[in-house]
What we know:
The chain has helices spanning 3-14, 19-34, 37-40, 58-66, 140-144, 186-195, and strands spanning 44-46, 70-77, 82-88, 94-96, 102-104, 110-112, 119-121, 126-127, 133-134, 151-155, 176-178, 183-184.
Amino acid sequence: MEKKALRTAVQEQLKQLTYKQYDVFSNEIQQQFLSSSFVREANVIGMTISMFPEVETRSLIEQLWALGKSVAVPKCRPATSEMDFYIIHSFEQLETVYMNLLEPIPQEATYVEPTAIDLVVVPGIVYDQTGYRIGYGGGYYDRFLPLCHAKTISFCFEQQIVAKVPKNSYDYPIDGLLTERRFIPCKQIRKEENYG
């Protein structure tokens, strides 16, 4: 199945989630994440402000602030499909932009260099266990991630995982995948598949 068809199929499945399931699953993922070495070893964490049915991040960000972590949120530059990250300390530093996305107001937040980010939570719609993903089609993260040395993880629900995601040479795989049931060590799986 091609990327576009896979994206549509999984998006249709996600529409079947009840709000109760969404809340329970999101909470499971958040708790696993907060107790992980990914969080323990990171000072600056990059992540988006989620929109249903993406795994909920707003309450997660509040918990990260309580742990003393800096949270950086992306600001997209649609003309070039690039993005910059800004550290926020309050949701008041966000504004609603195209597609109802919440992004930082650059004048009210603090720009952070890509190399200063320790961990990036990478959004997406479809994933496989080797860490390849299908996002929203803009290619923002495939452009951004090579610029930083951050570890990468994605949150997703089990129904977003498929056997194999078709990939291109410019696709940038993630290190790990966290679902409501388990942690998948994608980077390790890639090593085993390539050299095992």
